[in-house]
Amino acid sequence: MIETVTLKTKTVEHFSSVTKPCGSTCNMKCSYCFYLHKDELLYQGNTTKMSNDLLELHIKQYIEAQHGKYVEFIWQGGEPTLLGLDYFKRAVSLQKKYSKTGQQILNSFQTNGLKINKEWCQFFAEHNFLVGLSIDGPKHIHDRHRRSNAGKSAFDRVERAAITLKKHGVEFNVLCTVNSDNGKYPLDVYRYIRDKISPRIIQFTPVVQTVNFESASPFKITNETKSRIKVIEGNKRVTDWSVGPKQWGQFLSSIWDEWFSKDFGKVFIENFEDVTAITLGYGSQKCTSSEHCGKGLAVEHNGDVYSCDHFVYSDYYLGNITEVHQGDLLASSQQKNFGLAKSESLPSYCKQCQYLHYCQGECPKNRISFTPNGEPGLNYLCEGQKIFFHRVQQSVPELIRRIDSF
Questions:
Q1: Do the beta carbons of residue 348 and residue 330 sit within 8 Å?
Q2: What does DSSP say about strands 16-19 and 296-299: parallel, antiparallel, or unpaired?
Q3: Do you find a cis peptide bond into 78, omega within 30 degrees of 0?
């Protein structure tokens, strides 16, 4: 066991750490993956696995730093199934060892599905794991960007994973990344996931990547980045596979129309649940639509901690859990400033927007554009967000009527 690090900060009710126990190691090579290059970028050494001792230290610290009724572990990669089933059996055992009285331990597990079989599903079902399965639509759409390391189609194995998960009663969601290709076919994508895969929840996530995302961190949200943004603004800003702003808004709006007319109350779409909650006054359900961020760390396989899993760059390095307790890293001034910067750096154009309560500037990593009056820090997706929020507002009277009728 690695030497214990003492927690100095008062525990918080709840925060999350996205744990990357295998780093960026993966058995797929998706065109738009924002993580495959991390090992090379950060010079993390030869090991690609969080050691047993480091795993125990992370689990101990993560539980120790929280006093709420539940603690949720989020396992991602790379592809975490590559570590093998015994690795996560050990993780569950360690969670039981360090859990506090009356505290519920939850686990979320994001996978591409290639290695999911009966044994994995039995484990997930026994320990109530919520599984996230990555899929971008039917085969001809999915295969455009999501292929194996050998460049071959992996679609049939992903479909088989969904069938196996359902067969064993495992709760699972679908994470669908919306790019410039599947963004052209919103209803094809939605109907396939709804009818063929039938997950518990569907989550649509926009792909937005600057052309230099493999080497440069997202822009720090300060006035110092004006010249840096201008350089990219004058050239091509994003990769070819990034979804277009207007395309993103039309994608969500098209699905909203079908969902609202046919599937309301039956199909759960995270994006729609969030905007509905905000409309009804319950507040944001997602970090991207919250006023502040900073409560979601990223823990790498070597114990390094970063401000967020979308900000795993040297600019956002907080420390290592072998040297500083991750609860103290969460409470550090650097992380607090990171979280507050989301609202403090909003352009005045955004602060005057009628849709601010829906958006709050969306994710800071996407603030790579200029406002009409030349302010830096406008979210790249702004035009599309407005299209979608306008469509939602048109539905509000009927939305309220349906909610009241339940």
A1: no
A2: parallel
A3: yes
Q: Kindly indicate the confidence band of residue 12, based on its pLDDT and cuts at 50, 70 and 90.
A: confident
Output the DSSP codes for 71-91. Answer: EEEEE-SS-GGGG-HHHHHHH
- Concatenated DSSP letters of 132-189: EEE--SSHHHHTTT-BBTTS-B-HHHHHHHHHHHHHTT--EEEEEEE-TTGGG-HHHH
d(C-alpha 73, C-alpha 71), whole Å: 7
pLDDT tens-place string over residues 186-240: 999 999 999 999 999 999 999 999 888 777 777 654 444 444 444 444 446 899 9
Could you tell me which of 144, 171, 148 has the C-alpha nearest to residue 158? Answer: 148
The CA-atom distances, in angstroms, between 124 and each of 63, 93, 114, 381 are 20, 14, 15, 36
Q: CA geometry: angle at 405 spanning 404 and 406, to 5°?
A: 95
**322 pairs with which residues across the strands?**
none
Per the structure block, which two tokens stand in for 91?
A: 């993780």
Residue 87's φ and ψ, nearest 5 degrees, are -60, -40
pLDDT digits (tens, 9 = 90+) for 294-339: 999 999 999 999 999 999 998 999 999 999 999 999 999 999 999 9
Centre a 10 Å sphere on the Cβ of residue 15 and count the other Cβ atoms it contains: 21
Sequence-separated (6 or more) residues with CB below 8 Å from residue 229: 219, 368, 369, 370, 376, 377
- Kindly compute the dihedral angle of the four CA atoms of residues 32, 33, 34, 36, in this order, to the nearest 10 degrees: -140
pLDDT at site 406 = 73
309 in catalytic set = yes
Q: Is the pTM of this model over 0.90?
A: yes
State the Cα–Cα distance between residues 298 and 296, nearest whole angstrom. 7
Exactly one of 39, 274, 304, 309 is catalytic; name it. 309
The dihedral over CA atoms of 349, 353, 357, 363, expressed in degrees to the nearest 10, equals -40
The larger pLDDT score, comparing residue 45 to residue 18, is at 18
Q: Report how far residue 116's alpha carbon sits from residue 107's, in angstroms, rounded to the nearest whole number.
A: 16
What's the rounded Cα separation, in Å, for the pair 318 and 332?
8
